[in-house]
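Practice problem: predict the structure.
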Amino acid sequence: MEPNPIIPAGVFARLEHQGQALTVVKIQEAYPGDVARLHQELSTALQLGPGAPLLVLPIEGKPLISQGQAEQLYNDYLSTNTAAVVEQPWQPIWG
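Answer:
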């Protein structure tokens, strides 16, 4: 993926839990910009369909974006997969 000035540096993972796909993005810095624009740019860059579950987590604080049931799905995934955080392959957004 080519660098995009709207999307900050970070990593992403594509997960599947209970038959549902989920994309989780962890950004490495605070994001003061337009969250709706960030959502649009990430969806395009990661080739997500309309309404696809997307969760964007900043360094600290509440999720910036939680499309659909993304946050609930991710929390359930983590609670039922104790090794998930370590085993999950995260890819750089800009790679």
